[in-house]
Amino acid sequence: MRAPLRVIAIFLALARAAICAEGFQAGLGRADITPAEPIRLAGYASRTKPSESVAQHLFTKALAVRDPAGQLTIIITADTIGVPRWFTDQLAGRIEAELKVPRERIVFACSHSHSTPVIDGCLTDMYGLAGAEAEAVSRYTKFFLEQAFAAAQGAAYRCLYELFPIAASAR
Predict the structure, then answer these.
(1) Residue 32: which H helix or E strand, with range?
(2) 3-class DSSP state of 70
């Protein structure tokens, strides 16, 4: 007798999840953040020179989801070891100002790769950067910030204007 009740309870829960998911829309955005010049890689203080080649491209990606109430949430991921607080504050501020998405609906996550560029203000003292190396990190950080916004903007645009409906389920 208990087994059929459990099956019914699970069925009702899944049906509710499917019904609640109606009206959601999603959009994806992606931007290449591979550095265009040799740059110091983060993660190991024993590295003493800039990168020499690119084995794999790096990306920042974004998922924008609009709920049935019309609220947009943006989740951004990036191939990087980490970013300082000012980076996410500046990115979220721009998203809020230009895309009208409130800060509490923006998430930024890093892959924490130890083979990605040093980000200005993120443990940069550990590397003792000066001169051309410090300038390369500064240029890259600005480029990365622009590309992260471009990914978020692309995702938001696709979500709002290409009208791609999604279905969520608890399978």
Answers:
(1) strand 25-32
(2) coil
Q: Could you tell me the pLDDT band of residue 6, with boundaries at 50, 70 and 90?
A: low
3-state secondary structure of 152: helix
Q: Read off the tokens for 141.
A: 């950080």
The domain ranges of the chain are: 23-161
Q: What is the rounded distance in angstroms from the CA atom of residue 16 to the CA atom of residue 84?
A: 40
Write the burial class of residue 162 (CB in 10 Å: 0-12 exposed, 13-18 middle, 19+ buried).
Answer: exposed
Contact 66, 22 (CB under 8 A): no
Task: Return the number of other C-beta atoms located less than 10 Å from residue 93's C-beta.
Answer: 12
Decide the pairing of beta strands 106-110 and 72-78.
Answer: parallel
Angle at 87 between CA 81 and CA 88, to 5 degrees: 90
Distance CA 152, CA 90 (A): 13
Q: Alpha helix (H) ranges present in 45-130?
A: 85-94
Q: How confident is the model over 18-75, as pLDDT tens digits?
A: 444 578 999 999 999 999 999 999 987 778 889 999 999 999 999 999 999 999 999 9
Q: Are 48 and 127 in contact (CB under 8 A)?
A: no
Beta carbons of 140 and 117 less than 8 angstroms apart: yes
